[in-house]
């Protein structure tokens, strides 16, 4: 036994990555990131600590209650300690790519810009030129253009979804609903299409609402029937669309409705990019119908692979839906669930953050 001990050296204890997260987890977009690290900590893969803001203030982070934070409540601050280096990280879950606070960008070693416009940051498209120059930088939004000398710090990252106020509730929700669409054979589902969107503006003044109107008009013209409708949160929709009015539902009701249809249906999100509803479909393992997305996730979804792609004028909606049989829809759903588990879910998001931190250490 003594000889064996001499020949077989003892293993050194494993030092876990130490992750500190600003513990202001409200509103909901912040909790998605903490959820991922919480799950990794439960598996013994990271040493997680939720810390007050004064910890990051000591590291030189800008004050959260003054400029440029007026419209930046969905920002998460993290510190990842790997070996002998600490990496300062910002995860920005706000919608618009031009609402990046320069003070935070300069403070960070890595700046994750989530949401559906991240590929603009990846390619540099629209960060220069007439579109950029015409933007109005309002004080409550961002008082200055993006510091382009700092953009090498920016990393794309899949955006967050609406979740519940506590980590425990989120664990229960994701455990209950992940892959739920696939639990019932597609051919046995009582509805062909599921759609539940919002109607919040006059379509003459809002391009996104005009797209919703065009989609529902095509549904009606094609003789298709959708399960769901539109939730009025602003002005009254025009008379032909009032038949689609639907009461507002909770997230668990939304996903339960989706599981009763053979495919989801959605419009694109802000400025022609992926809608946040995409995450709900991926989490459920559900196929869906959408126009081609102009900007996508850090691992982009592919038309005809992850979703049924229709033209921008949605005139081919019925034709494209008819092309896919229930077995083909189920295969698309399985691919979407796989994409969620490997690239999108909170745990996959946390792993992606750790991998990017590792690259600069």
State the end-to-end distance.
40 Å
Q: Tell me the number of strands.
A: 11
H/E element string? HEHEHEEHEHHEHEHEHEHEEHHH
Instruction: Compute the average pLDDT.
Output: 85
Number of helices: 13
Percent in helix = 25-40%
Q: Compute the gyration radius: what is it?
A: 22 Å
| Major sheet size, sense and barrel closure | 6 strands, mixed
Structural class: alpha/beta
Biggest β-sheet: strands ordered side by side in the sheet:
2-1-3-4-5-6
Low-confidence stretches: 1-9
Question: If you had to describe this structure to a student in words, what would you say it looks like?
Answer:
There is one protein chain. The protein has 13 helices and eleven strands. The chain is an alpha/beta fold. It has two domains: 2-163 and 347-359, no CATH class; 179-344, Glycogen Phosphorylase B (Rossmann fold), CATH 3.40.50.2000. The strands form two sheets. The chain has a six-stranded mixed beta sheet. It has a five-stranded parallel beta sheet with strand order 8-7-9-10-11, with helices on both faces. Helix 10 links the parallel strand 9 (261-265) and strand 10 (288-291). The longest helix has 19 residues, at 326-344. It is globular. The model is unreliable at 1-9 (pLDDT under 50).
